[in-house]
Structure prediction request, 328 residues.
Amino acid sequence: MSAPPCPVAIGAQIVANDARVQPPLGAIAKNLSQTADPFDPDRIDAAHHVLIAGPTASGKSALALHLATTQGGVVVNADALQVWSCWRVLSARPSEADEEAAPHALYGHVAPGADYSVGHWLRDVAGLLATGQRLIVVGGTGLYLSALTSGLAEIPQTPPELRTKATARVQHEGFGALLAELDPATAARIDRQNPLRVQRAWEVQAATGRGLAAWQDATPAPLLPLAACTPLLIETDRDLLAARIATRFGAMLGSGALEEVRAVLPFWNPTAPWAQAIGARDIVAYLRDEMSLTGATEAAVIATQQYAKRQRTWFRGRMRDWHKIMGA
Prediction:
């Protein structure tokens, strides 16, 4: 049974905090009459690890920082784009002030072009767990959180030349060509709208002769099962979230996003994992005089809102046992 939602006052106002822009936490809501089984984040057992998920711009980082500063713990990134060193502003990473207020880990520690996957991330988290510290894992990358709580298939590395071949095929034939060659079980399970997931599945099948779904079905025990932590899922009104996203991207442009993208132009590779930061390719188009700044902004905001919609859909289907907290 899924946990009922509980309201948490995250605040509707968008603020710019150095490089990170998101709603302030505010006080935890005490009006619990809307649910028969309320969940109050302020009463979390400080000895337990915490997981915080939610769509982009919903206030995850603010809640994580609140828990870390009031209860103790290390804030651990679970966002696939916030690992890259080139994107502090554009990925909405915690600000330097936040990082001074509480310990943070796995933010901006990977250089563009380096090989970094969910398997690398899990090994990094395992190292943190081994220290005995309390972890507050926060992010919107569902694959990271699912692998952490449900386990990750031990899939062999695919050779670089196969990735080169896959990338060339995508450029000439499109992702549909790779998708059409996947085994039925894998094709039915993966996110067919995510080009990187499609290519990864094709590479695994081509390299091992075994579909990604078959590898996943042989998944070992999870590193941090839900029973061993407190999992929180922030849910936010769709229209309020859309407005936050639009305001946040405008604030990002004024906080250094243009400069961040300009810095990676010399080695820009639109198919690279690090280049998938939403808004990056739109700003690249603007900097190359292929699009107006207004057009780039509109495209980035729409793409972010669509991403938030996909996140909400993913969370609803796979995080039914997480405690729901309603963002105000």
User: Anything to note?
Assistant: The beta strands are 5-8, 15-17, 20-22, 49-53, 74-77, 104-105, 135-138, 229-236, 323-327. Residues 160-217 form a domain with the Histone, subunit A fold (CATH 1.10.20.140).
